[in-house]
Predict the structure of Ty3-gypsy retrotransposon protein.
Amino acid sequence: MRPITYTHPNVMSVMMADITAKAAMVEMERKINFLMKVVEERDHEITALREQIRTRETAESSQTPIVKATDKGKNVVQENQPQQESVSVASLSVQQLQDMITNSIRA
C-alpha cells in the first residue's frame, strides 16, 4: 500500500487545527458539565436554606406571647421567641455564573 501524501502543506496544519479544536471542545464540554453540577448543588443548598427560613418564620408567627405577673400586680408581656440566628443565602447572579463559565473556558 502506498502512504497517503498531501500535495498541499496546509492540509496537515488544517488537520492538526481540527484535532486541536475537537480537543478544546471536549475540554469545554467537561468544564461546562462541571459548572452545571456546581450550580445544581448550589440550587439545592439555596432551596434548603429557604425552607429553613420559611420554617423559622412559620414558627415565629405561630408563637403566642407569655404574660408574666410582676410583684406590683402589673402584667408584663414577654415575647416567647428563640434566639435569632442570622441565615445567609448564598446565591450566584447570572453575571457571576457567566463569569465563572468564561473564566473556566479560558483556563
Q: What stands out?
A: Confidence is low (pLDDT under 50) at residues 84-89. Residues 9-61 form the longest helix (53 residues). The first strand starts at residue 66 and ends at 69. The radius of gyration is 31 Å.
